[in-house]
C-alpha cells in the first residue's frame, strides 16, 4: 500500500507542468487578455501565432 502512495506522488510530480515552461495559450479568455485576437484558420499578415482559442482550427494571433 505504501508503494502506491509513492507511485502516486512520483506521477504527480513528473506530470505537473513547470511554471514558465508551458506558457501556451489554450482558451479565448487568456488570448484576449494578452492583447491578441482569435482568428479562424491561419493568422493574418503581420500577426504571430501564439496559441489556440479552444479548438485547434481557431488560432490566437498577436502583433509582434
UniProtKB/TrEMBL annotation:
One GO cellular component term: extracellular space
Domain Beta/alpha-defensin C-terminal: 31-61
Database matches in Gene3D superfamilies: Antimicrobial Peptide, Beta-defensin 2, Chain A
Keyword flag Signal: yes
Annotated SMART domains: DEFSN
The keyword Cell cycle is assigned to this record: no
Assembly: Monomer. Homodimer.
UniProt name for this protein: B-defensin2-like protein 3
Gene name in the database record: Defb2L3
